[in-house]
Design a protein that fits this description.
The structure holds 2 protein chains of 2 kinds. Chain A is of the alpha+beta class. Chain A contains 3 helices and 4 strands, in the order E-H-E-E-H-E-H. Chain A has helices at 25-29, 56-59, 75-83, and strands at residues 14-15, 35-36, 44-45, 66-67. The longest helix of chain A is centred in the last third of the chain and has 9 residues, at 75-83. By secondary structure, chain B is an alpha/beta fold. Chain B has 2 domains: 5-192, Rossmann fold (3-Layer(aba) Sandwich); 198-358, no CATH class. Chain B has 15 helices and 7 strands. Chain B has helices at 5-8, 40-50, 83-92, 110-115, 121-130, 133-136, 154-161, 175-180, 196-201, 205-209, 211-226, 234-262, 271-290, 294-314, 324-358; strands at 20-26, 29-34, 63-67, 76-79, 98-102, 141-144, 164-167. In chain B, strand 1 (20-26) and strand 2 (29-34) form a beta hairpin. In chain B, helix 12 crosses helix 13 (271-290) and helix 14 (294-314) packs antiparallel against helix 15 (324-358). The longest helix of chain B is centred in the C-terminal third of the chain and has 35 residues, at 324-358. The chains are: A alpha+beta, B alpha/beta. The interface between A and B is large, with 44 and 51 residues.
Chain lengths: 100, 359
């Protein structure tokens, strides 16, 4: 993924090291190596800017140490969600849909 | 190799998929046996959905499938019911025996389904129970695709269905190595990639996805050409509209194909800004070669830049590393820019034709 990095200063990922129970799940599920985590020791947040907010780490954190405003980074889906809030246009789109 | 229809399970009104080679008797009933190799229909189907044809209906029924000759101790691999996903999985597992548990994701791939929470903890647990998996296998382990994890809480799965989740690799192609290593993934198996081939493979769906917009642009180009740039003749109007439509196609190609191809090499992080850059460059070259006047050339550059930025921005959904917060911000910032550029292009085109006509 060299050269493929996205806008970093808007990432909503937050990690509370105090709450970490060291299960290692976040390191296992993250597709971008944002966390380094091994069973038995507290996870380290290595690359917050590499986070794409998929939410896998937060969903799989049993102690609630990780929070993120998760969603799909897809312009088509965001556009559909905007249009679905407009009174007369909302019937024309599925708020969750980009057909994928 | 093709079995007679009855052996593959055909009965009145119901026909088995061509990849079903027979039925395996288990303690939970009959399970369809599937082959690893792709047939002609699988290749054609894959090509069609890459072009966006029939993609929303390319699904198979959820439930348990058997690959090879699985025994009660063989691994269970969970996947989505998008047929291209299922086909890729069975192809990559050629020569092996395992159980494939397909969950209902409404024909959507693993990652998008997990992002929209149809590939969920509850769905996996429900399919485990519906298939009576506890009667089919003696172990209590499921291998989940890593990209399903935005929707599946592994620590909850055991409570819900008695099976524990092991996080498999990102790519089906790494499954053989993952299984041979005793269900251990190395660091590379855990990371998504976005190579040139991967970037272009997912780009072609945009052609069909934008067919309505393309038609509207063609009609708008004709109307605008008729009110001035066409010189108020039929032939002139057609030629001017074709020129404007050509600029749209150029911007479309730059945004949908050029930006994905050059993604790591274009400046700026927002995709819309990458599109602005490439669109301006391509538009400038086209204007130098084809424009007959300065205003016309300016209109070409402005319109090409606007369209390329718009289509590049929409490629965020096909990429593997853009975040919701980031795409939301770039859309709020760049849609006004794109709209302004297109409006400026149209006004330049119209006004210069009116001025030229008066002189």
């Amino acid at each position: 993924m060299i050269g493929l990095r996205y806008i970093e200063d808007v990432v909503t990922l937050a990690y509370d090291r105090e709450k970490c129970v060291g299960c290692g799940a976040c390191g296992e599920v993250c597709p971008h190596g944002v966390f380094r985590a091994e069973r038995g020791s507290k996870a380290e947040l290595l690359d917050r800017g590499g986070c794409m907010e998929c939410g896998a780490c937060a969903v799989n954190c049993p102690s609630g140490a990780i929070t993120v405003k998760a969603g799909v980074g897809c312009a088509q889906a965001i556009l559909a969600s905007w249009v679905s809030r407009v009174p007369f246009l909302k019937k024309t789109v599925n708020p969750d849909s980009c057909e994928c | 190799m093709e079995l007679p229809p009855e052996a593959a399970g055909e009965r009145a009104g119901v026909r088995a998929w061509p990849f079903v080679t027979g039925w395996l008797r288990t303690q939970a009933g009959l399970v369809p046996k599937v082959r690893a190799a792709w047939g002609r229909g699988d290749h054609l189907g894959a090509l069609a959905v890459r072009l966006g044809i029939g993609r929303d209906k390319y699904r198979l029924a959820p439930g348990l499938y058997a690959l090879g000759e699985p025994t009660r101790s063989c691994p269970v691999i969970v996947t989505a019911n998008y047929k291209l996903t299922f086909d890729t999985l069975r192809r990559e597992l050629a020569g092996r025996s395992c159980w494939i548990l397909v969950v209902e994701t409404y024909g959507i791939n693993v990652w998008c389904a997990a992002g929209k929470r149809s590939f969920s903890t509850d769905e996996v647990a429900a399919r485990v129970k519906a298939a009576h998996l506890d009667k089919v296998v003696t172990h209590r382990t499921l291998i989940l695709p890593q990209l399903a994890m935005p929707g599946v809480a592994a620590f909850n799965l055991r409570k819900l269905c008695g099976f524990k989740a092991v996080v498999g690799p990102v790519r089906a192609a790494d499954l053989p190595a993952f299984l041979d290593a005793g269900m251990k993934a190395d660091a590379a198996m855990r990371r998504v990639t976005f190579s040139l081939a991967e970037r272009l493979t997912v780009a072609f769906v945009e052609i069909r996805a934008n067919r309505l917009l393309t038609l509207n642009v063609a009609v708008a180009a004709l109307i605008l050409a008729a009110v001035g740039p066409g010189g108020f003749t039929f032939g002139g109007t057609l030629a001017a509209a074709a020129g404007a439509f050509g600029v749209y196609l150029l911007g479309f190609t730059a945004g949908c194909m050029g930006v994905p191809a050059l993604l790591p090499h274009l400046p700026f992080r927002p995709f819309a800004a990458k599109g602005l850059t490439l669109g301006a460059a391509v538009g400038f070259l086209a204007a130098c070669g084809l424009a007959r006047s300065l205003p016309e050339g300016l209109a070409v550059v402005l319109a090409c830049t606007a369209w390329a930025s718009w289509f590049a921005m929409h490629y965020t959904g096909s990429s593997t590393f853009t975040s919701l917060s980031g795409v939301d911000r770039e859309m709020r910032r760049y849609i006004p820019v794109q709209g302004g550029l297109l409006l400026a292009a149209i006004l330049t085109w119209l006004i210069s034709s009116w001025m030229g006509g008066a002189s």
